[in-house]
Amino acid sequence: MDIDKVPKSVGKTLEIKGWVWRKRESKDIIFLVIRDSSDVVQCTITDRHKDFKKAKKLTIESSVIIKGRVAKDKRAPTGYEIKISKLEPVHIAERFPITKDKSTEFLLDTRHLWLRSRYLTAAMKVRHTVIGAIHKFFRDRGYYEFDPPIFQPIQCEGGATLFEVKYFDDVTYLTQSWQLYAEAAVFALEKVYDVAPTFRAERSKTTRHLAEFWMAEMEAAWMDLKEVTEVAKDEVRFIIKEVLKHNKKELSLLGQDIKKLERIARKPFPTITYTKALEILEKKEKLRIPWGKDLRTLEEDKLMKHFDTPVVVTHYPKEIMAFYKPRDPKKPKTALCFDMLAPEGYGELVGGSQRDTDIDELIKSLKKMGESPKGYEWYLDLRRFGSVTHSGYGLGVERLVAWLCKLESIKDSIPFPRTMMRFRP
């Protein structure tokens, strides 16, 4: 039986399988806290029992099968305990290397073992719900899952962050985004989405950046900027509701304020322009940012002090945007694009835009970046044969998980983090 079912079995005898999470013993009694993937439970055995000697040999992370009667006990970690009638050690573990006082780097070195911690187990369960919610959200809205190539010959988000890969006798790159290929798909399937790994060779050591992360992306034909921002808001609200539905226990364990998330899930997310964001920063934070300068982490964090929900910021300066983001015909200095920022210093959750359908503008932007339009001929073809208004965005799965779980570092929102300084274990 899964351990989380124990509270419903008071007075009954049951069998559990798990690992020793904590052990405390005296001369005549041993307290074992056993964990499985669902929860923990205290088990006790006295020196009058024939399996007492077996219990004495157990070490932290030893695997066991335990049979016993369930009773209430307010002193136990979960308020219940199992009085052992039979104990069967499956494997006696060697001395477990992770103790209470270990550095962050040591825990990353032993990530394969630290995954067993209740902290990371809880975060991974929330991540599981988030990924499932993304699939449900888009499939329920009639989107098709569309998988892009991981090897891509051109850049999408800036050549400086490309990971180069030897490809037989040639060279290619790990994907920065599925976007360009998704744009090809919308002329066939109209509405597509994907959840896939993404790679950025950013030389950043912050708690917000990973070299390998997962992005949930969508692309839709016949959709403009206003509509795509509303889809992004709906998606994030839906994910929050799903996490609240399935993971309240994990959120509590991680120290998240559940009532706060419930309020956020009910409230509308505001939309402001980049220009309005600068006005807020100047008026409320005494920060004068020159128009045309991108918002750094510092400015984003100060801006979000004045909001208690995610906020969509639109119409960033065209000159600092990616080549595929079009000018707004009404405000040519700005692009038809948006970011969604999370409160509490968790940064950008979503980035997206309407897509430029003007071939001449795309070619001009590519040349300005130092890119040869020849490598993008297939992409430009999408503007030559029945082009329509279309839009899309990417949601950073790890950023969202980190915010929902109130994690100190984005590294704990993914099983095995890959950063500028780490690609092991």
- Which bin fits the share of residues in helices? 25-40%
Strand content: 25-35%
- For the biggest β-sheet, the strand order reads 6-10-11-18-17-16-13-12
Oligomeric organization of the protein chains: single chain
State the CATH architecture of the largest domain: 2-Layer Sandwich
- In the CATH hierarchy, the third-tier topology of the largest domain is known as BirA Bifunctional Protein, domain 2
Separation of the first and last Cα atoms: 32 Å
Q: Please, could you describe this protein's structure?
A:
- The chain has two domains: 3-91, OB fold (Dihydrolipoamide Acetyltransferase, E2P), CATH 2.40.50; 109-413, BirA Bifunctional Protein, domain 2 (2-Layer Sandwich).
- 31% of the residues lie in helices and 27% in strands.
- It has helices spanning 52-57, 104-109, 111-114, 118-140, 179-189, 225-246, 248-253, 258-266, 274-285, 297-304, 359-368, 377-381, 397-405; strands at residues 13-25, 29-35, 40-46, 63-72, 80-91, 144-145, 151-152, 164-167, 170-174, 191-199, 212-221, 271-273, 311-314, 327-328, 331-335, 337-342, 347-354, 390-396.
- The strands form four sheets. The protein has an eight-stranded mixed β-sheet. A five-stranded mixed β-barrel has the order 1-2-3-5-4.
- Helix 6 (225-246) runs antiparallel to helix 8 (258-266).
- The longest helix has 23 residues, at 118-140.
- The two termini are 32 Å apart.
